Amino acid sequence: MSITGPDEEREFLAAYRPEDYHPVAVTVDTVALTLRGGALSVLLIRRAMPPFAGFWALPGGFVRTDKTASGHLVEEDLDEAAMRELTEETGILADSHLEQLATYGDPTRDPRMRVITVAYLALVVDPPDPVSGGDAADAAWTPVAELNLATADAAAGAGARRGRPLAFDHARILADGLERARAKLEYTPLATAFLGPEFTIAELRAVYEAVWGRRVHPGNFHRKVLSVPGFVVETGQVTERGGPRGGRRAQLYRAGDARLLHPALLRPAGEGAEQ
Amino acid sequence: MSITGPDEEREFLAAYRPEDYHPVAVTVDTVALTLRGGALSVLLIRRAMPPFAGFWALPGGFVRTDKTASGHLVEEDLDEAAMRELTEETGILADSHLEQLATYGDPTRDPRMRVITVAYLALVVDPPDPVSGGDAADAAWTPVAELNLATADAAAGAGARRGRPLAFDHARILADGLERARAKLEYTPLATAFLGPEFTIAELRAVYEAVWGRRVHPGNFHRKVLSVPGFVVETGQVTERGGPRGGRRAQLYRAGDARLLHPALLRPAGEGAEQ
DNA sequence: AGAATAGTGTCTGTAAGACAATATTGT
DNA sequence: ACAATATTGTCTTACAGACACTATTCT
């Protein structure tokens, strides 16, 4: 228990053998969300390898801590690992937004060994179809409404695609990711990360409606968004055309520099009435 | 890439050797906060062992994934590990609140090897002085204002007790923990977790003032708290005495059953004017 | 013309903040 | 009595939601 000096510190580190300790592995898993045809969708892969071979799962994998043939230590930060695994398994780039969600460490969550996973939330703008690779036999954007996740609060045990549950504890991770996205729409400009560089107020409203799963009043939303400082900035341009069946052309906006929305756009209070 | 069946899944697991993979360790570190003499304070330990021997640090340590002599695998969830390490190193129990904060995995954050740490936020009610144990040479409640963490946003590199920086990246973890606590006071009844089962509105206000580092208007706060459904419930009792230098006796309240405050108690907008 | 969509006006109820006044209690 | 603290009242301003209305563009 005595406190040692710099020399002892050096000796200690020289004698330390990592391989003697702690048989645990670390993975990253990403809840990648996008809007496709107006529907909030999540990127899932079909696992090619055990455990849970054949199950749908969130894209992810082991954080690299390996030594290469040259003996050089390949080490990546957790964020880098999440982006790498996402691209390896699906070809999708998390170029719009990436944030850490939470870490899941139930000792029984992986049958191989003790695996803790650091989950991420990613948003992707107008993505192509995924191309499966690595340990993924398939990859697909899946509308969240098709999964059996009634609300973010419930869920946990549920969560299926084509009737099957998700691998590991991925249903809970997905539910947590959805809840994070819903909450952050309220008090941050996160919704703009679902859209390209220029967008209309109606497109922004469509993001809120898809993520929250409820209708938003067009007039009040319009006025509200423009009244929040730094949320959006006018470009002076308007859309090329009005709506497909008529309608006025809309102003185009860009994301502003606000990090936080003051005042916030609060969700309507009533519980999870999807649609 | 082919998808295997249940038999292959069993064979795979039987042949899997965890020790062949992934030299990485997982620790937990806890930002334990309390109110002492009106000052928001954090529990710090002085490290007895390298690395960073002699430095002040957050209490924490390795998640147990060891095999015992009997060959039985001792595995604990991350929350359990956080509580165990806190008690081992300081004697303090995180009995009032414990939540996961974030996970830190910079490859250079620990000189021994790749160590990722899962950070927790704990709140403790009216705690005793800590008793150092385990790898801790000392342990102490330290007023947050004494550390060189100007605001939660700044900080990161700074953070000291008696002029020394904190070990590892603990200054950033502490800053993130403080920001989490400040934010959650706004929209959850977290403030009640700093207090005993019965408290006055003034005591609750003292929590907000200590955590936010700013004065709160007594009259408006009082009315506001009582107007939020489920935040507090009246006990019908009043305090034994008024203030030490005179003053009316206060009603006693208990925490209500609300999980979220509607409407929220928003922080005053202006930037980090402590005190 | 008529439908569809964008954008604005107006009203009402709720809430936040400033400030003041009243109610009790200790010295 | 006086200072200190708890609690309530009042007023002003801001904002959310409902609803109605105007503006523009497509078929």
Can you tell me about this structure?
2 copies of one chain form a homodimer. The first copy, chain A, has 275 residues and is an alpha+beta fold. Chain A folds into 2 domains: 13-180, Nucleoside Triphosphate Pyrophosphohydrolase; 188-255, Arc Repressor Mutant, subunit A (Orthogonal Bundle), CATH 1.10.10. The first copy, chain A, has helices at residues 6-15, 78-90, 170-187, 201-212, 218-227, and strands at residues 25-36, 39-47, 56-57, 60-62, 97-104, 115-123, 136-143, 160-161, 164-165, 232-238, 251-255. In chain A, the strands form 3 sheets. In chain A, strands 1, 2, 3, 4, 5, 6 and 7 form a 7-stranded mixed β-sheet that branches. A two-stranded antiparallel ribbon of chain A has the order 8-9. The longest helix of chain A is centred in the middle third of the chain and has 18 residues, at 170-187. Residues 150-158 of chain A have low confidence and may be disordered. Chain A binds a DNA duplex (27 and 27 nucleotides) through residues 200-202, 217-220, 222-224, 227, 241-251, 263, 266, 268.
